[in-house]
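Problem 12. The chain below contains 161 residues. Write out its predicted structure in token notation.
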Amino acid sequence: MVAPIVQPGQTIYSDPINALVQPHVQANVGSFSVPAGASTYTAVVFSSTISGNTASMWASGQATRLVAPTNGVYLVHGGVIWPAALATSDARGELRISGAGTPAPGTRVGTQRGSAGNMQAAASGATFLTAGQYLELYLNTQNASAIAAAVTLGITRISAT
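Solution.
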């Protein structure tokens, strides 16, 4: 990359430079307890962000939500690491928009059929979000008891339309 030319005494403001980087956030939780129950889907409560450039995209007061600051198509990226406690049981995830009871169009979380430990199911896709809409990850297991999963999930705007 060519170094930008800056004239002596010239002031460079951060807003035009930051505007070149699309809004993004990646949140994580080292251990999220997924309750037992074949029909129980539970929203993941994230504990922190790994990276991001727009503070309004995740807040601890609404820790299940990754919020779109502007309209656009958002790339979904991340995954769920299932522990050995899953054993031979199935585990599933769904990405939902703004409290919907069904998966968001264009998104997918891989179904895990058993785990010997540290097996990851990918969360991926692309979906349109309007400013203020949010994405949540819901997890489910058919295991006989609650299990702890490690989760990362991010959204990055890839297009304004």
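Discussion. The chain has a mean pLDDT of 92. Students who got a different answer should revisit the alignment rule from Section 12.3.
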